[in-house]
Write a structure and sequence with these properties.
Layout: E1 17-27, H1 32-37, E2 43-54, E3 59-63, H2 70-77, E4 85-90, E5 93-94, H3 101-107, E6 108-111, H4 115-118, H5 125-135, H6 142-155, H7 172-184, E7 190-194, H8 202-219, E8 222-227, H9 230-234, E9 239-244, E10 247-253, H10 254-259, H11 264-269, H12 278-285, H13 312-316, E11 322-325, E12 328-330
Helix pairs in contact: 5-6
This protein binds adenosine-5'-triphosphate and magnesium ion (MG).
Adenosine-5'-triphosphate binds near residues 64, 68 and 228.
Length: about 350
């Protein structure tokens, strides 16, 4: 059964996370030459005007090619970056205005692609987990803490006997389970998982994705699940946002995205789906052309330089993210023609 059909009842409520018109830019350092010639420093807009929400217990998949701004968006959500514009509301309040940063950081946890670099190589599994419990004052006393460490390990499917190991003595999958246990230690309401399975073998990927599903069902945790590959997020996500050059270009329920995607970029990502017109099939077989320079995005539609459906008007005006149907948003002026 797909995730969309097993939505927890809590998902009907108010959003846990509400991102409004979020942008994040990185400025190039002004070089001496630039200062001397009066040339303006170039600004890279890594995330452009993104609005998304996540309900309690919901999994939102975020997909797109390398460099489209997924990690930057994830870091803004987790409070690791301050947005350049727009806001991140957590339970209706701006994330930046939440007085107790420590309490706020507990509710949103982030998991990264490479658990090896996010775990301290000199700390055992037990020390890693105990440190988090101590830092947040969650469990009093060594004995209770040791019990909680065992419990956390069992929750992520690791035998407690592994707790004396250092990260290098664990497999990639085991290390990712430890970083999941560390995130769970603080009982978060939302986990931002940034390509958490990209570095793992296919069989291990499936196990870790199953674990995320189990955690969602057991604890009602919401997820923002970031991946390159649509197939990775397909079954775990209730809804999926497709990003291109810093923007959301399509947002819909997961099933609708697979059955009736409306953006040519999403179609290209799902390249296995045959295109009606043989001339366009080449474009569907893979993405043609290079990703544009993010410092110099195309005028009009960002995807116009690679789109098989492009017309002159597409290059003239930047399209909005408009509703195609209830809950299905598409940033393409030809969305109704694309079948
Ligand atoms: N700290 C930074 N300083 C300057 N530019 C950055 C910084 N972080 C990201 N960028 C740029 O912002 C854009 C978005 O990067 P980001 O890492 O968010 O993409 P991504 O979708 O996560 O890519 P990947 O799939 O490779 O992880 C890229 O052009 C990247 O080079
Ligand atoms: Mg990334």
């Amino acid at each position: 059964m797909s995730a969309a059909m097993t939505s927890p009842a809590g998902m009907q409520g108010e959003p846990l996370l509400d991102i409004r018109n979020l942008s994040k830019s990185f400025g190039e350092d002004r070089s001496l030459l630039q200062v001397a010639t009066g040339k303006p420093a170039r600004v890279l807009q890594a995330v452009r005007n993104v609005s998304l929400s996540v309900k309690p217990g919901e999994t939102l998949g975020v997909v797109g090619e390398s460099g489209c701004g997924k990690s930057t968006l994830g870091r803004c959500i987790a409070g690791l970056y301050d947005p350049s514009a727009g806001e991140v509301l957590w339970q209706g309040k701006p994330l930046t205005a939440i007085g107790d940063r420590k309490a706020a950081s507990r509710q949103i946890q982030m998991i990264f692609q490479d658990p090896y670099s996010s775990l301290n190589p000199r700390m055992t599994v037990e020390q890693t987990l105990a440190e988090v419990l101590k830092a947040h004052g969650l469990v009093d006393g060594g004995k209770a803490r040791a019990e909680r460490v065992d419990e956390l390990l069992l929750t992520v499917g690791l035998p407690p006997r592994l707790k004396d190991r250092l990260p290098h003595a664990l497999s990639g999958g085991q290390r990712q389970r430890v970083s999941i246990a560390r995130a769970l230690a603080v009982q978060p309401q939302l986990i931002v998982a940034d390509e958490p399975v990209s570095a793992l073998d296919a069989s291990v990927q499936a196990q870790i994705i199953n674990l995320f599903e189990e955690l969602r069902d057991r604890f009602g945790i919401a997820f923002v699940f970031i991946a390159h590959d649509l197939n990775v997020v397909r079954h775990i996500s209730h809804r999926i946002a497709v990003m291109y050059l810093g923007e959301v270009v399509e947002l819909s329920e997961a099933d609708a995205l697979f059955d009736a995607q409306r953006h040519p970029y999403t179609k290209a990502l799902l390249s296995a789906i045959p295109w009606p017109d043989p001339e366009r099939r080449t474009a569907a077989a893979g993405l043609e052309g290079e990703l544009p320079d993010p410092l110099n995005p195309p005028a009009g539609c960002s995807f116009s330089t690679r789109c098989a459906w492009v017309e002159e008007a597409c290059r003239a005006r930047h399209p909005d993210l408009d509703p195609y149907s209830n809950g299905h948003l598409v940033r393409c002026r030809r969305m109704h023609e694309i079948a």
